[in-house]
Amino acid sequence: MRRSPFLLLAALLVLLAGCTSGPDRDEGKPTLPPRPAQPSTERWLPGPGLAWQWQLSGRLDPTVDVPVYDIDGFDHPASAVADLHRRGRKVICYLSTGAWEDFRPDAGRFPTSLLGRGNGWEGERWLDIRRTDVLGPLMAERLDMCRDKGFDAVEPDNMDGYANRTGFPLTAADQLRYNRLIARLAHERGLSVGLKNDLDQIPELVGDFDFAVNEQCAEHDECAALTPFVRAGKAVFHVEYELPTREFCPTTRELGLSSMLKKYDLGGWREPCA
Prior knowledge:
InterPro entries: Aldolase_TIM, GH, GH114_TIM-barrel. The chain is of the alpha/beta class. The chain is 28% helix and 19% strand.
């Protein structure tokens, strides 16, 4: 039987009315957009002026009232990192990435062909950073350790071998390539990463690193070289060993550095800039 077009139109209107929702109880309130998905890992990005504690020897003292701790990645378990987190601290994982240390548990995995001259510290020798095919996987495992223990960041040490007598013909280009590799490996694991010393390459590397760590820039009249980090909104964690605080604090405070006086053993003692 053929249906009247008027009946078909009426039926369609009834169906459309049934699909329309009734008035909203919260009518008049703005409709909120869906919350954007958050990235699975967000790096900690420390800004200039943060006070810090750097302790690489002795029994760890977690009670120093500062927002940032820098401690040895091998020597401390995940529970120590978690304890510092409960106290409101961010925690940096100290690693040597440019020198071999005979006292580390993975020391036997480094081929002897990669070991150069001593770097001035007992049991340590410079690494041939050109051999990224070997060092890359070894350093990736160390950074895995930092991540798995819950650290927020990493301080890779001995990152200026090209400027020292290493026993290898290292160039500035070799150092840039290696330092950027370490930064990339850290970022892939959700860790922020600091550039340790290596002042001459700051202009090329400030974009690759999230903060800087420096020793004795005031003693050598080099602190101004670190200001690209401060201008980029990135912290510069700085220590002196020989100068009294009255001689360097006014200058480094004006430059925006996070400065303190430490002893060479980097134990718990510290004298911060007020």
